[in-house]
Each structure stands twice: as structure tokens, then as C-alpha cells.
Amino acid sequence: MMATGNRQTNRLAGAVSPYLQSHAHQEVDWYPWGEEAFAEALRRDVPVLISIGYRTCHWCHVMSRESFDDAEIATLLNESVVSIKVDREEHGDVDATYLAQAAAFTGQLGWPLTVFATPAGQAFYAATYLPPEAREGLPSFPHVINAVSQAWRENRDEVTHSSAGLVKALGKARSAIARETHPLPSREDLAGVVAQIGHQEDPVAGGFGTAPKFPLAPVLNFLLSYGELVPGASSEVVQRTLATYVNSDLYDEVEGGFFRYSTNADFSDPHYERMLVDNAGLLLAYSRIGDLETAGSLVSFLTHHLSTGTGFASGQDSESRIDGRPSEGGYYLLGAAARERVTPPALDEKILTGWNGLALEALAAAHRAGVPGNPGEAAEELARWLWDNHLSATGLLRLSRDGSASSAPATLEDYGGFALGLLEVGCALGKAIYVDQAATLLALAMEGDHEGVDPVLVAHGLATPGLSPGDISEGASPSGASLMALALLRLSHLTSAPHLREKALTYVSPYLSHAVEQPLGTGGVLRFVAEFSAPERELVVVGEGESELSALARSWNPAGALSLVVTPHQAAEFLDVGCTIMEGRLAASTPTAYLCERGTCALPVTDTAALRAQLTQ
Q1: Got the DSSP string for 421-433?
Q2: pLDDT of res. 457
Q3: Which fold has domain 5-178?
Q4: Which of 17, 303, 308, 427 sits at a 20 to 30 Å CA gap from 499?
């Protein structure tokens, strides 16, 4: 006997995820991710459907309307399987686990991800979007459900044996990768990587690769870091690409912000969801190249359209209602005046710690670059709120919404992203408290006994205890591994702690060989390599008030370098939290600049022209 409508609604109605809540009205007897669903599947002796998506995913909405809203399909699901709905942004480790398993069944990975698994959580069939009726080469969803049920009843041994074998093989591969150590790519290797990326630039439409086209912010930020390490053509590629993006349909000229991707090579016909990760990464890139107009529009987009009043929402839907009907992108085809007369697409108001950390880093860079819109103030407000609301006695929260915290465990992305963001804000604003907080987070993340992986995955042998690396692909945003590595690299430089520098390398070491081979999907790792390979340089200006000297120092921020402008009191605060680069730099009757490279310091200067000459040597 299936659960009643009230019971099934209650399972999702209290979810933190708006994506889960959007399915609460359906007759499908949904379970949220958790052990209860697997126990029920074992009790009933039926497979598990694990349906993974996210709020701003267009085809997730389509499958929801077409199939999960359909009473007959809901009944078929309730009779045949135990159905679990997962928000991939909430449970990134779950998503990464089943993406890996799904790759054995389909080459078209994406969302909605539709996985059928044993009660032990081991996948034996997977697909993405499935229509209610067969079309365009896709089997119908009901047909797949029936076929899965038949296989479970009639070929149980084969199903469980093959699924167990798949999971075992993936586990061995995962463990082997985690144990691998690869040498740091040389400058010659990086030059080859840059050449490879250049060969994948579209000479006609711009951007990289073929349709669909995504704004690959991590790769662009790697190229910027490499261009500062080895001046040359990589910076030109970035300039061309960023100019292409902002002059294409990928960019919303009315409200600012970039859409998730385009279905066509020339960036026409975009999918209209606007995601925090994409726009944070692009804000970082536009700030770094000094495009203050575009960067300013991105600051405005974040603070006016993605703000929840506390942190930044994970994204904004592509769909809205125009003339009473769902419209994919219709809102974004309207001008400013017309938009004021319709309801804008809904926000996915989940506040993800790691993604907001990326926003902190980007806002700090915008502040350094002099981008309009008060990005420094926005960064400090966000940093304070996240610290006060996303850190508890038991560790870091992965996400919250409207003051309610998710039970999903924090991942490396959350610890690394938040820590890196705090470090950048602290250095950009000259406030040691944020550096101290970042050090606390990194210490928590490195604790050997820290339990971060979802306990259900651990219980079913699908993961091992410890902080989850999450998704290591870096097309849209840096991975948790590279964020942790960058944060540790920054902290090691600030505190003169070489063991943290070496620890940073261990986080990315398993992925270095893959990064050289597949650079478009590993921009975060490659950026770390470029900045790790750069000479350790720091520029500190100590003095009261603003001056030409401090303005020059604030604008100087090459890859792998530190730049701080502080008062004598602030310098003392940095020293108090262990930032040894402030030693001997506490008292200055006039603003004084101290420039050092690889432990060798130039003479202190108080003249802007003298500092400029030192910086160009």
C-alpha cells in the first residue's frame, strides 16, 4: 500500500532545497536523500530511483511537468520503485558518485540524472532526461521503469552482480587516483597546455570548442595567471573571449549577468538560467583584466538580483510566466520597462557556502580593481554573515535557506572556497580578522578525523570517511581540491609556513596529469599550478590614509603575489594572527612600501615613482 498524498508531501515540504519543495505536490511517493529510502527499498524488495537535478535546470522542469506530475507515471513509480529526489547543489558528493556510475550506462551525462539502483545504492541503469512517450531516439520513461522492474524480478543475480562489480571497480579507481602523486607540470608543460587551449578556440564565433558553448571561467582565470607568469598570447585569448561573451546573447544587457550556456556555437539561443558560480568566476576575470564596466554590471547583478538579503542565491530560473504560461527565457527577451510589469524568474535561494566563497574572492578582486558598486562593502557584509551563520560547533554548513540549515555535509568546495574568499577579502581590505578565520577553516578541513562525506554513501560502501572532494570537473567552477590548494598557498605565503605550501600541493597532485591532458575541464587545478610556480612576491604599504603609493600597491596583484595596504594598527593585527610578512613593518611616519621577492627585499620607498620603478624591474 503506497503512502498517502499527505505523507509523501510532508517528506519534501520541509526540505531546505527549493528544488525538492517544487516536487512536494506530486503523487510520486518521494523520499529525500537518506537511509530511510534505502531501508524501505530493502523492505519492499524493489529497486531505487535516484532522480538528481537542480532548481534552475530547464530540462529538470520539463521532466517534472511531463512525467512526475503525471498521475499514471506516479502510480507506476510508486508500485515499482522507491523514489529519491536529490538536489545536486545540496548533495554534491551524491551527484558526483552517481555521475561516475552513470558513465557506465550513458555517454550523455547531465541533468536531470535518472539512476536506478539496488537497495544497496549500486546503479544498474542510468539515463538523463526521459520523455513520457518515446521520441527522437529516446525510450519513454514508463518503458524504462517497466524494463527495470522486469530485470529486477527476472534477472536479479545478473543485475546485482554487475552493479556490485561496477561499484567495486569505481571504488578501486577512486582509491588509486587519490593515492597517485604526479610531478608539478613544468613551465614547458604549461606552455603546451596554453597552446592546446589556443587550438580549441573557435576562430569564427569565439569561445572554446563547439556547441553547446559554456563560459569557462576557471580556464580564463588560469590563462590570466599564466599570462602574468609568462607574458604573451594567453592574455590575448582571454581578452578576445571575454569580449565575445559580453557582446553575445550569453549576456543580459538589461540586468547584467551571464546565462548558463548557449546551445549554438555563436552563443545564440542561450539557456537562460543565471548561476552564481558562472558569474562569480566571470566577475573575477573581468576585474582582473580591468574591464570596469562589465565587472560593475556583474557586481550589480549579484547584489541586486541574486541577493537573498543575507548571502547570494545559487541561481535564478530560466523560466517565468508570461501571459499565464511557462516561458523559457521569455522574461529575458523583454526590455527594462516590460520586465517591471511581469514577475521575474524565481531564485533558488539556497545559500551555498563554497559558491558564496567564490563570490567573496571575486568581490575582493573587484574592490582592488576599483570596480563601481561598492564590491568591498558587499564582500565584508557577506563574509560576516557566512561566518556568523554557516559555522557551527560541529563544523561548517554546506548550505542554508531562510535560516534553516541543510543536513548535507560540507565538502572541500565549502571549506576551500570560503577560506580562499576570506583570505582575499582580508588582504584586499587590510583586515586581519578574515585571514584568521580562514586559517581556522583550513585547520578544520585538514583534521584527520573530520567526517565530511555523506554518511549514507559511507554506509553503503560508496565513499570513504573524510571530506568529500565532490565533483572534480572544473568547467564551470573550481573544484574543492584546487580551492583548498589555493587557500593553503595564500596562507603559507602570509605566514611563511612552507609546510602549508607542500600540503597545498597534495590536494591537486592526483589530478595534475589529467589537467595537462584535459585543460578545458581543469582550469582551477591549472591556475593553482601557475600560481604555485610563480615567484613568491609581496608588496606591503604601511601608512595612514590614502595616497598614490597605496593606490598603486592596491592595483598590483600578479599571480602568486600578495599585496596589502594597511595602517600601522592593521599591520599589528596581521602580525598578531601569525602573518609574518608584517615583521618589521609596524611603524611608519609616512606611507612606506616594502617589496620582497623570494625572501629578498628591496629598500623601503615612500615615493610612488620609486615604487613603480621597483615593480617594473
Answers
A1: HHHHHHHHHT-HH
A2: 86
A3: Glutaredoxin (3.40.30)
A4: 427
